[in-house]
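Task: fold both queries, return tokens.
Query 1:
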Amino acid sequence: MNFLGFRKLVYEKSKTRMLGFVALAQHGVLNEPGELLDLGFADSDGSAQAVIDNRDIGVGIKIRLHKKSIGENSRAALRLGIKAGEATGTPMMVHVGDTAIGMDEIADTLRPGDIITHCYTPKKPSIIDDKGKLLPLVRKAKERGVIFDVGHAGGHFDFALVERAMGEGIIPDVISSDLHGLSLEKIIASCTVDAARVVGWQDRIGSLEVGREADIAVLQIVNEPTKLRDSVGGEKTHAQRIAAKWTVRAGEVFQGRG
């Protein structure tokens, strides 16, 4: 009923394309209490069936691994999430930051194509050790095809940590919210064709081709000093910003605020 409610009340009324990862917890995301503090609420079969029954929306399985949501159930939840991902042939996305187990163990558990979101979170434990070095198992995960997603989210971005991680080769595969410091070409690719490839939709969305729906973002590079802020009080000033001029969704044009 939870996913059906989303389809009827949100998805079918929205003009924006919506794709989603289905929560392993049968009641979705909760803050008080956390959704998987009681592992009995983890529903591997149910979350897999929700994806199978809703292939036009569901593109994978989602687990929040921070302690407030999951307590000491991280390892069992990861196993159940992978089971659901294998049953549906889709990736599992894990939310990190303030986790009960280390990022090295999390990264080592994931399959190629699974996704670490909030990958640059400053919340411990992070992908960088106390000496400022990238964790070896995180590097190996990147090399074998685990996907790294920025997921800024207002609380998971630290300029200093990003610079160290990118200096050691952890360039994000996907940008699901804003990021600073990449070329425009890489930013566009990470928000479009690369993101579509991660969820297996590259034959439908993410690029402009004859016969596809007209989903287009018209952007403008504005030459004006812009102050950028991370999640821990850091600031940088950039000489340019990207402004959204128009959005075209299935041929319908929406004016941007630029």
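Query 1 returned. Query 2:
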Amino acid sequence: MNAFTCEKCGWYNEWTTDDEDDIDEDDSDEDDYEYDSITEETNYYSPETEQRLRTEERLRELTLAQKERRRAKKDEHRVIKAQKKEENRVKKAQKKEQWKRFLRRILRKKQTVGLSSDQCKNMQYGDVITFLKSREFYNFRVSASETLSGKNASQEGVVARISIDNQDLFEELTEFPYDAFINIAFYSMKKAFPPLTSRNAKRADLKDIILSFRNAGFENLYQQAIPDITKRWLAKDNYVEAVMINGRTDYKKNERFRIDTKVVIIYHTFKDK
């Protein structure tokens, strides 16, 4: 058994050899040759070297993890710094705008509207507000005029009334102070209260429930049959199981819903229908 350990890298090597001397008796004049055959070889690190290598690998892993944490922390600081910078920019812009408004209010400076009252009434209220803001008006009050039904749903959001400093009629070149009070009302769908809850409607007649919701103003009524009645003499046909408004059966009578909200009336009927 032979062994060897490298002093630099710690590589440990063991091997065994069988030496055979073959002499050809007929060729006595030839030199003798020695044949070495390596029959078994086992290479591995010594326990001390393996421990050292494991320690070094662990140190490398810890170093990489530490670098990754530092990198993540730097990225976090960079994001926070950018956020603070943006917040400071917004604050400065707000202060500047407030100062401009203050001076305009003191000096009673004016600006042309850029739209007439008739033009506004053919536009979506959001577009009107955006345009007036671009003219540096800022004092808005917006309200919904719930007057629409399903027939004229396309008018939803269109300006119904507009006034600037209580003036209903104005032209594009009419001038108003920058802090003028702008009141905008826009068309919106009517709303209604349900006539009864889903629990109250249970076991009532289908036609009566449909009539009740129609009289309350609801327009989109749907029926959903459950064909599960088999014995005609034990149960009546078309009795209500539940009412769903906008997918809910737990609605309350004091809740207001748009009249175009989907109302589904679920009822029982005979199997052969």
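Both queries returned. Flag for query 2: Confidence is low (pLDDT under 50) at residues 18-42.
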